[in-house]
Amino acid sequence: MATQALNIATLQDHIEPPVPGVPCLDVDPYSREVLSNPEPWYDTLRETGDIVWLSRYGCWATGRREHVHAIFTDWERFPSSPGVGLTDFRNGKPWRQPSLVLETDPPDHTRARKVLARVLSPGAVRKIRPVFADAASKMADRVVEKGEIDGMEDIAKAYPLQVFPDALGIEAGDREMLLDYGSMVFNAIGPLNEFLQADLDKLEKVGPWIAARCDPAALRLDGMGAEIYAAVETGELTAEEAPLLVRSFLSAGVDTTVNAIGNALLLFARHPDQWQVLRENPKLARRHAFEEVLRRESPVHTFFRTTNDSVDVAGIPLGDETKIMLCMAAANRDPRAFDEPERFDIQRHTADHVAFGAGIHACVGQVVARLEAEMVLTELAARVERIELTGEHVWRLNNSLHGLEKLPLKLHPA
User: Fold this and answer.
1) Looking at residue 192, which CATH number applies to its domain?
2) 24-25 and 52-54 as β-strands: parallel, antiparallel, unpaired?
3) How many domains does the chain have?
């Protein structure tokens, strides 16, 4: 697929704001410098104003929790169907067929979400829980015996790439392709820069592999993927929609969880006191610990919405068909919403973070991500006295994901 034929936003020299006198930032948030060390950018965006004009891309942005949450939960004024990235799907051909969940609005979104709600019901999650727990136990035994590990390769990637595709009903083999595809999906939320171009160069190989895994013939009959196809028989989905819904699982259920688990390991290595809190009260793994990880090191830092009318945010008129960046990572460190937001505290109540978005388009895979994280943290806490950083960790640069490429650790057994 030729990238020049696709509708993907690019960096501009300078675009004047449509409203005189508004706060304006002449920063490229997708530069290598910013993505390598995003915290100063988060602070600058959030503290510059309620709503800020980004002159390099000609769009609005907010990093304040109040506005991020309000926009996420107002799909009528800020729809997702024009695309949840910097690119406006209405102005050209998207790089792939839009997601039936993430990039549609009601009523189409409602139909798809109803099917997913059934597939991911509490009963369905209880069914897979013992399988996930057993896999986490065996994984924890392996890494503790090994001692010196790469937290990303041996835990954060290895575990989700085993249990999630198994639950979906995908056969083993070449599952690293799921990470390549997820990287592509999230890089496409930003502009056509070096990070997205590197992924698009793999599209000819990765695209057909993903499409083949979404085919009903490739899915086990006892998996979640087959349950989605069952909705075709009931008339809830069309035969063309079902593979798109399976694809939504593949793009939403792996990379974000990999990043979140890796970020958790890094945070606990940096904060051994919090690891001891978890070991003394392992029930915290079921909710509070992972929610605080999501808040403090959000695995996805940015999504977009598009105005559907001449709307305003904080008294500033944005105009119609205008993109607005929602920086969840900045919002999750907003001192207006969280006391001492830089402090990592797994006993903090953080149910109001926006790491998974909010509203009808909130992350479809979050229930499984929470289950995976709970299993990993519970099993490790039972076996590991201390997590030690043994070298320099390396961030994986992506236009929308915030996660690690390398995490050298030593696990000290209990």
Assistant:
1) 1.10.630.10
2) parallel
3) 1
